[in-house]
Amino acid sequence: MNTKKLTGLALLTALIVSLTLTLALAGCGGQGTSASAGSGTEGSAADGGTVIKVGASPAPHAEILAQVKDILAGEGYTLEVVEYSDYIQPNEALSDGTLDANYFQHIAYLENYNDENGTNLVSAGGVHFEPLCLYPGKTLSLDALGDGAEIAVPSDPTNEARALLLLEDEGLITLKEGVGLEATPNDIASNPRNIVIVEAEAAALPRTLEDVDAAVINGNYAIGAGLDPDTALASEDVSSAAAERYVNVIAVRAGDEDSDKIKALVKALQSTTVKTYIEQTYNGAVLFVS
Question: Which pLDDT tens digit goes with each residue over 147-192?
């Protein structure tokens, strides 16, 4: 037999086999990319089942979610976490269907967001409470806050009212009777030290500390900035109504709270695994409440 003809035939056969394998692998790759992108639909066997795509603040929410990935994997779900650094985008992404759920906000903020944006997002369950704390900036104690001291507070409505109530609890200001969670700086009835309220986006508050006398900072941003709650000048009472009113929740589109995968997510986040992690990790800056 002609050796050159045999070699040519072998090469042709190898090329055909190689092309067949390449096309097959390309088809598998396309399926894998679609499943791993995650849109809350059934995924391929490669991702272990149904994808649950959750938006979260980096700390503590994304950190807490990381603790339940294995729990959900055991239930046949793949948890995909998308981190956000603000309070607007995760609700927008949930509303438009980009996310299956988000976990970054308390119930009061969620209700206010719905009112202002005409959305219908609901709580599927509560997980933890982050006491709002007054951290020292240029002034290191409450007693040292002098005339005209500047205190930064969150600019979003629910957290600003909460911050003002904390300042009132510490005797720094007095608010008009009955304003409660609707309070704004315009509702300050008495201000004996002429405290100047500096409004800032919640995420920016840790960076204001070097410029103001003190700042009321949300727990997730305080944690992200490495602030120790033991150094706080004041914090919300964990036995107060705030612990219920400001519980951080898993938010979903109305109707999705009864889906199997959302129930699995809530169950995992309300587990003893998460309770133990929170108690051992956050030194009182995050409190498990479910």
Answer: 999 999 999 988 899 999 999 999 999 999 999 888 999 999 999 9
Pairing of strands 188-190, 174-175: antiparallel
Nearest to 248 by CA among 217, 287, 221: 287
Residue 194 phi, psi (nearest 5): 55, 45
Overall number of domains in the chain: 2
Helix (H) or strand (E) holding 34: helix 3-37
Q: Say which CATH number the domain at 253 has.
A: 3.40.190.10
| Token pair recorded at residue 280 | 């051992």
Quote the pTM value: 0.69
Q: Are strands 150-154 and 214-217 parallel, antiparallel or unpaired?
A: parallel
- Identify whether residues 157 and 204 lie together within a single domain: yes
> Measured on CA atoms in the order 276, 282, 287, 290, is the torsion positive or negative?
negative
SS3 content of the chain, % helix, strand, coil (to 5): 45, 20, 30
